[in-house]
């Protein structure tokens, strides 16, 4: 049975607001939550960027049943030993309610350290090293490692009985196929069914057959089409560029400069914009048919309470 989750967008809302929204989502019937982990928002208009790891502890305590995922990029802003410790602590306090999802990152968040921003192949190699370090620490090993990241005699003394799964984040088919061999599962973002099928096939071809797959669904729901489109354009127009652009721009101001040229109608290729709940159900059913185990719904406009209540009442019961 597919699981339906709620996306907690730290770029768009204060942590205190997001805490209320995940509590609402739990009451409405959502079973999972995905937390973004940003240092900067995608635009000045979004205007927030709370620390996800502090928030996760509070959110998991404030909700009794939701399972959580967080997307992070160990290797530059975060040392992998620190991520291993943070994730192990959450998994020990809240058994079987947390998975770690990892990606190679974006300059927007990671380049604040002042270090060189590596090319994609080097970021991928660094990510795999970090995952190996994290898994070794969770296994109770004392880790010394010298490579793209360095670790000296690190050992975790607080570990969960069962370590979290490590889910790989990918956009392109090349990255998806690569992580199929070592990640415990896949997380990717919504796009047209034929493009999503290419991603699913690449993951399975690379070794991901039978592993869980999570889809972050970007949508904009409101009472009428024009409102849904305009509110999506206000909040999410900077997020529709190709991955090579998304990973290289460094500041919210640079994303705002690029987003100036995006017209509202261009968002239809990237965000599921509709006031029609049956249309949303049909879109989501196609995702399920492709084999996704979890759908994390991200209503990209600011009307979160309306979205949670309406989808909880009208959409979730049909799909679950």
Report what the structure shows:
This protein is α/β, with parallel strands linked by helices and 320 residues long. The protein has one domain: Luciferase-like domain (TIM Barrel). The chain is built from 13 helices and eleven strands. The strands form two sheets. Strands 1-2-3-4-7-8-9-11 form an eight-stranded parallel barrel, surrounded by seven helices. It has a two-stranded antiparallel ribbon with strand order 5-6. Helix 1 packs parallel to helix 2, helix 1 runs parallel beside helix 12 and helix 6 packs parallel to helix 7. The chain is globular and about 60 Å long. The N and C termini lie close together (7 Å). The model has no long low-confidence stretch (mean pLDDT 97).
How would you summarize what this structure contains?
This protein has helices spanning 15-28, 52-62, 80-93, 107-110, 120-138, 173-179, 193-208, 225-236, 243-246, 252-259, 277-289, 304-314, 316-319, and strands at 3-8, 32-35, 67-72, 98-102, 143-146, 150-154, 166-169, 185-189, 213-220, 272-273, 294-299. It has 320 residues and is of the alpha/beta class.
């Amino acid at each position: 049975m597919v699981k339906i989750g709620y996306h907690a967008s730290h770029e768009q809302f204060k942590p205190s607001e997001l805490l209320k929204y995940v509590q609402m989502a739990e009451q409405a019937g959502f079973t999972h939550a995905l937390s973004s982990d940003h240092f900067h928002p995608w635009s000045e208009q979004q205007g927030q960027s709370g620390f996800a790891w502090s928030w996760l502890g509070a959110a998991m305590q404030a909700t009794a049943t939701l399972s959580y995922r967080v997307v992070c990029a160990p290797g530059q802003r975060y040392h992998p030993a620190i991520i291993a410790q943070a994730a192990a602590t959450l998994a020990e306090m809240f058994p079987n309610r947390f998975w770690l999802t990892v990606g190679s990152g974006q300059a927007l968040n990671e380049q604040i350290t002042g270090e060189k921003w590596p090319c994609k192949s080097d970021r991928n190699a660094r990510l795999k090293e970090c995952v190996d370090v994290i898994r070794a620490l969770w296994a109770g090993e004392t880790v010394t490692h010298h490579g793209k990241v360095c670790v000296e005699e690190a050992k975790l003394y607080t570990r969960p009985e069962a370590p979290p799964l490590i889910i790989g984040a990918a956009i392109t088919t090349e990255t998806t196929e690569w992580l199929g061999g070592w990640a415990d599962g896949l997380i990717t973002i919504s796009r047209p069914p034929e493009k999503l099928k290419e991603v699913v096939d690449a993951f399975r071809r690379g070794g991901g057959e039978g592993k869980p797959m999570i889809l972050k669904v970007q949508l904009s729901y409101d009472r009428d089409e024009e409102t849904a489109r305009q509110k999506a354009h206000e909040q999410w127009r900077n997020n529709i560029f190709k991955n090579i652009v998304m990973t290289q721009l460094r500041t919210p101001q640079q994303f705002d400069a690029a987003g100036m040229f995006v017209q509202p109608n261009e968002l239809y290729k990237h965000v599921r914009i509709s006031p029609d709940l049956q249309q949303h159900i049909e879109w989501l059913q196609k995702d399920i048919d492709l084999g996704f185990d979890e759908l994390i719904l991200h209503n990209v406009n600011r009307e979160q309470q309306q979205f949670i209540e309406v989808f909880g009442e009208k959409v979730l019961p049909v799909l679950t």
